[in-house]
Please model this.
Amino acid sequence: MIIHIEAESDIPIYTQLTNQIIEGIARGEIAPGDSLPSVRAFAADLGVNMHTVNKSYHELEKKGIIKIVPKSGAIISSIEQMTEEKKQLIEAGFKPVIAEAFVLGMSKKEIEELVSGMLNQMKER
Amino acid sequence: MSFIIFFIITLFIAVIQTAIPYLVNRTVVFGVMVPEQYIEDKTIKKYKKYYSLSVALLSIVILVSYLVWVLSNERLDNQVALTGAVIEFALIFISITFYLYYHAKTKQLKQQNNWAENLKPMKVTDLSIRSQDEMLPWYLYLLPIISTIGLMIYTLMNYDILPNQIPTHWGPSGEADAFTDKTSFSAIKLSLGLLMMQLMFLGIHIATKKSGIKLSATSLESSRNRQLSLRKYSSWLLFVVLLGITMLMSYFQLMTIHPEIGEGFVKLIIPFSFLILVLIGTLIFAIKVGRSDKVMETTVEAKIMDLDEDKYWKGGLFYFNKNDPSIFVEKRFGVGWTLNFANPIGLVIILVPLTVFLVISFL
Model:
């Protein structure tokens, strides 16, 4: 999977990394059980500080998406049961973004099309 | 003999220096990063041509003068060698001067034309790139290392038959020309130096393997091809050169113990074939890697470019980037690797064995 980082974006590099890895899993480009490169190798290949990659890996681990294996890297976890708690967290993330789109002038239909367009790029499971 | 050796080496330097602008990474021109969209620019092509023509012409003048100077009169061997060394440095100095001139011109050109403007700088990597890496495994280095340790033991076992004067230096014709008194240290000094060199090569190999595989956002496929070729072929070259050095030094060591194996023709042919091996190996390496990113067609995405790293490259030659954990990075002007001077591990890998090596040879 190819990772693209916008070097001069307002979004910090570690967040871009996290998002792209999650999107990669959603699209099926990387699958549960696959391993991600070691922090050092990843940072060297991208030419970024090791802390940046480390931060992203820890964020992903906290979300339960990867499992960090000391010295060898990180492994993508298999799908867990969706808990009520996680659902609430996701809803809290969705709500302000959708509200913002609506307030800025997108119609409900447009928003629905946008979301289903994104969902179409993701792998069915 | 001296003349032939120096002439071949100088010719080799001249050919490589002339060809460099056409062997370097496609998006780096005279040490300046140029976005993929502009690498076919007319002025850039002109600069490359002028550089190569100037270096080639001056090289021919220098080599012909050297030839005429040697043939016009009887010259002493050490005179020929000294002059040879001087013209080699002169040639390198000349090409660096031309390089610096065109480095400044290209930098100016990039600024005047605002090439970096309106392009979004991107960094890119491939999560599976590490599994495509074809560098030699590190444990291959154990073979020459074990052979050297064996040689040291063998030398100490044969301590009694060693001559009272141990040779420490050999001239270009393979003849020993400096000696020291026999002690158990001086008997294995040469092999010890060899061992240090082998450890240094092993350190360089490991550090290279850990260093980043840098891909280009605008030419993903050709940069992948180049980085993987560079890594593969440089690990081969490093190992072949190390095997050559090991054989050469082991031969000198064995010749000290058993002088009869070094009689006549062998003495001349072994150092000479080592030189030829290194030169031809380097030439093949430079061409293989230099061509690796020129063969593929690339389609350029209009609005992006690679992150401009010119600020990390002092004079386009020396890399200082403390955020990059890489110890080695691909050279900008030339084919091969250079140190990330902001990373202290790199300096340690080079300096420690080198110091030990120097200390051993002056003891």
Observations:
- The two ends of chain A are 19 Å apart (CA to CA).
